[in-house]
Design goal:
Layout (H helix, E strand, L loop, with lengths): L8 H15 L6 H8 L3 H8 L2 H14 L3 H5 L8 H17 L8 H9 L4 H27 L9 H20 L4 H12 L4
């Protein structure tokens, strides 16, 4: 008979996600994880697998929990489409700007750190970016159908620009760019919707 876990796996995973988000994959040591999660090595391996498996689970948690999933749900709400896009971008920027550590986006950080040599992780992050693009695309199609978006504008191209702008402004936040400059940059980029 196995002994019950003396820790909450969900809480431990949340703590691991925070460490990976702050330090990145490569510079996070097993000791960093064990200390933050307040568990022993055996419990970590038995519950989460090795460091890489734990990292992948932390990435999934970041995308579905921690508010990112909630912010993405903005893109599927009813009502005028263009204000929803602006609301979503604004929420993402304020989330990043309100972080005193200026950690940026865990997905963007991961893409920059690992994509050149970790193709499966690059594909996972790319899939998340494609989900954001698809959310923008569907809203932009709706905006075009409802007459909010000019008929000559290409919803797919605009969706790609919005994802690129969003990732770029997140990098600006991480680099310590002043908040007013980040907001102005995003607002200028959003003018493509006008």
């Amino acid at each position: 008979m196995s002994r019950p876990k003396a820790f909450n796996p969900d809480e431990a995973l949340e703590k691991a996600m925070q460490v990976f988000w702050h330090k990145g994959y490569e510079t996070t040591s097993m000791e960093d994880l064990l200390n933050a999660m307040d568990i022993n090595r055996g419990s970590l391996y038995a519950t989460f697998g090795d460091k890489r498996e734990l990292f992948l689970k932390a990435m999934d948690l970041y995308c579905t929990g921690g508010g990112v999933g909630n912010r993405l749900s903005i893109l599927s709400q009813p009502g005028p489409a263009l204000p929803l896009i602006r609301q979503f971008i604004g929420a993402m920027l304020e989330f990043g700007l309100s972080d005193p550590l200026r950690r940026g986006c865990m997905m963007t950080n991961t893409l920059v750190e690992l994509a050149p040599h970790e193709k499966d992780i690059a594909l996972k992050v790319s899939g998340r970016l494609q989900m954001a693009e698809e959310g923008f695309f569907q809203l932009l199609l709706r905006a075009k159908h409802e007459g909010e978006l000019a008929t000559h504008k290409d919803p797919r191209a605009l969706a790609r620009v919005l994802v690129t702008m969003m990732q770029g402004t997140i990098v600006m936040i991480k680099a310590g760019t002043p908040a007013d400059v980040v907001r102005q940059t995003a607002e200028t980029a959003l003018s493509i919707l006008d």
